[in-house]
Each structure stands twice: as C-alpha cells, then as structure tokens.
Amino acid sequence: MSKVRVESFTISLDGFGAGPGQDLNNPLGVGGTALHAWAMTTRTFQRAVFGKEEGTTAGIDEAYAARGFANVGAWIMGRNMFGPVRGPWPDESWRGWWGEDPVYHAPVFVLTSHSRAPLVMAGGTTFHFVTTGIVAALEQAREAAQGRDVRIGGGVNVIQQYLRARLIDELHIAVSPVLLGAGERLFDGVDLPALGYACTRHESSPNATHVLLTRLDPP
Amino acid sequence: MSKVRVESFTISLDGFGAGPGQDLNNPLGVGGTALHAWAMTTRTFQRAVFGKEEGTTAGIDEAYAARGFANVGAWIMGRNMFGPVRGPWPDESWRGWWGEDPVYHAPVFVLTSHSRAPLVMAGGTTFHFVTTGIVAALEQAREAAQGRDVRIGGGVNVIQQYLRARLIDELHIAVSPVLLGAGERLFDGVDLPALGYACTRHESSPNATHVLLTRLDPP
Q1: For testing the chain A interface, which of B14, B30, B201 should be mutated: the one with the most A CBs within 10 Å?
Q2: Residue A151 lies in a domain
Q3: Half-sphere exposure (Cβ direction) of B210: Cα atoms closer than 13 Å
C-alpha cells in the first residue's frame, strides 16, 4: 500500500512552520528562510532547488532530504504554498515559485477554492487545481502516483487538515534551532497522541533535530 | 551580576511543558513523566531526587542536569509546582512533593495568592510563600541568593510571566522525543524574538535535544 507522507517539514523551536507575513518576497514568511538552513546544506536541496552540484552528500541532513524525494509519485499542497495570489485567479500568469522546471517532477495537486486549468510545466511537473476538498485531492494523487507514495508538501493548514482526518501515515519533521515568535504553529489544535501518532525516531545534526512521527495501527 | 535562569525545563515535541490533569498521582500531569526520561538517566537527578548513586556521570544529559544546580542560590516556583492544593491552604499539612529533605537545599519562593508561614525543611530548604507578585518574589530571591543565581523552577505559567516581564536571562530547554497532545504549551502567547531571546546553543543526546535561549542585550 502506498503511503501518505510529510517530509522535510521544518518547524522552529517555538513550533512555527512558517513565519508571519508571507508575500512575494517572503514565500515562507518573515524569518522562514532561517528555518531551512539545515536543508540548504544538502546536495539534494541544492540540486533540486538551485540545480547546483553543491552541498554535502553525507550526514543525516542529506539522508532526510533525500528520503523526502524517494518513491514519491505525486504531491499535494495548499494554494498558499503554490503562490501568493489570493482569491479567484486573475489570470494564468502565476506559475509557482519554482521556475519553468519545478522541483517536483510529478503531478502536483493544489488545493484551492477557485478552479483553474491544469498547468503543464517542464520536467514532468503538472499542477492540477482541486476544488473538491482534501479527500478528493488525495484520491486523485493516489491514482496519479501509480503505487508510489503521496507527499503532502504543506503548508501548516493543509497538514493539519490531513492529520485531523487521519490520512497521513508518516511525518518527518525537522526542528531548527531558531525562534520565530509568530506565524502558524504546526501542532496547534492537533492532538497527535489522540490521533494515533507517536514519535518513532529521533536524531540530530548540528543544524536540526529530525523526528519521525508515525501513525500506529489501529489509530 | 547574578543571573535569573530556567534550567532543565522539558517540553514535548508538540510544545507542552506538562501534561493535562495534574493531581496527586500525576504531579507533572498525565504523560508528563515521560518528558523527563532524559533527566532520569543522569547521576545528578538520581542523586537529587532519589538519593541514589545511579545514572550516568558522563554525556550531555548529565552535563545539563548538573549545570542546573550549579551556582543556584535561590529558587522560585509556582504554587501548582509546590503541590496539588488549590485555593486557601486548609492547614499546613502539605509540605511539597519532595519529602522532608527536598532537592533544593536553598530558599524557595513559592508564588501564591494565599499567605502561609515559611516552611523550614531539612537540608537547607525553606519554602517562603510570596503573595505580592513575581517582581517582589524575584527581589526576595535575589537577596536570599547572596550573589548566586536565581533559578525559576516552573511551571509553564510562571515561566511565561517572567519571560513577558523580560526578567529571565537564560533558559535551558530540553525537547523530549515524545508527544503529549494536550496540556500547557511553554511558548503559547510568548513572542521570544520580540522579547529579545535567541537560540545560542543546540545539541542533542539520544534522549533529548538541549537548547539554550539567551536574552541578548539590549532586549
């Protein structure tokens, strides 16, 4: 059975998955970039995001970054992760944060209240805009993944919705040694033990603490 | 200048400093004991809490446990950390969780709305009950500490009050790889960067991630 996974999702010491004030200049919110310093040290992220053969090929930061892309057949993300446009799409000019050849190389299902035609990008990425809710999006993603796993990209609100619906099998969360002070807290209003989750792995690099949270059966 | 410190204060991955439902059988709330597994491995805690020459004398868990008692001349704690009795003291029978020779071996200032005569215990611990607020308690603790540091023991609400008043110089927080799901969140409603705090150290054992949060001057 293919899994539904959250990977490389990073929170601050004070629990925030993104800083406040997301906009075109701050796609992760103010201060949000510092969250991801651990990932920026890795070959996987340097290659995926910047197309550069830089960063380390060893160590647990790289190991977690790499596992995040392994066996992923489709992605799901919230509309605010796709871009800063709010409300109805004024036109089709916004094509994501990631250039013409996005990092996904797979079908990406974008949750939105506003319909839009599929957006075919280079490198195997197609953005599909789903207006029928998280369960329908997951069904479509599972089918598109053809037996491989579905990765929930984020943001915080989307992960919370899938957690509350008990639809996520495993989460890799990185805790960065930074304080954000405000923003969206990943675990606000989410009682993980009551939903059946436990911490099943815990290890640290100098840059972050990595944990796996696994939904135990029966939930 | 003596410092005001929080030491060995442990939170869960989802941010809780104590579990829900504190009572006589669950002084740290339900599930709260699992938070402190890292401390229980250490010689310092085994000796201080149980009077046993057990636990490790090496490693960073022990190093953090030991620094928590070093150069501490007085303690401050909330009334709920002192015991499960709520409201006016019915009598003087409650003498703390820690037996007749408590772990503090120093003056302890207990914040409460209900006055009570000082309680002199064995081993140098005297509990003073302060009804005039956190600033007055800190003044009394500083004086009693005679140049050594003041340690804020907890709980969550007391630490939050001192943080918001910018009266804490440094916090050692341990993040345990457990999920509590409910309880009191240490950083709820506390914007640490706005209050002048930054993470200045970050390291992990297999049992916990240890961080130091330091108030930078000027705040």
Answers
A1: B14
A2: yes
A3: 22
Say which of A180, A191, A204 has its CB closest to residue B181. Answer: A191
Residue B41: its pLDDT value, please?
93
State the amino acid at position A179 in one-letter form: L
Q: Of A181, A219, A2, A183, whose CA–CA distance to A106 is shortest?
A: A2
pLDDT range class, residue A30, cuts 50, 70, 90:
confident
Domains: count for chain A: 1
The CATH number linked to B76 is 3.40.430.10
pLDDT tens sequence across B11-26: 999 999 977 777 777 7
Does B91 map to a domain?
A: no
Pairing state between β A72-78 and A149-154: parallel
B contacts of A14 (beta carbons < 8 Å): 15, 187, 190, 192
Question: At A164, which amino acid appears?
Answer: R
Q: How many CA atoms lie within 13 A of B63 on its CB side?
A: 10
Instruction: Encode burial over A62-81: b for 16+ CB neighbours within 10 A, e otherwise.
Output: bbbbbbbbeebbbbbbbbbb
A10 found inside a domain: no
- Residue A124 in any domain: the answer is yes
User: What is the residue range of A126's domain?
Assistant: 50-207
Residue of B nearest to A190 (CA): B181
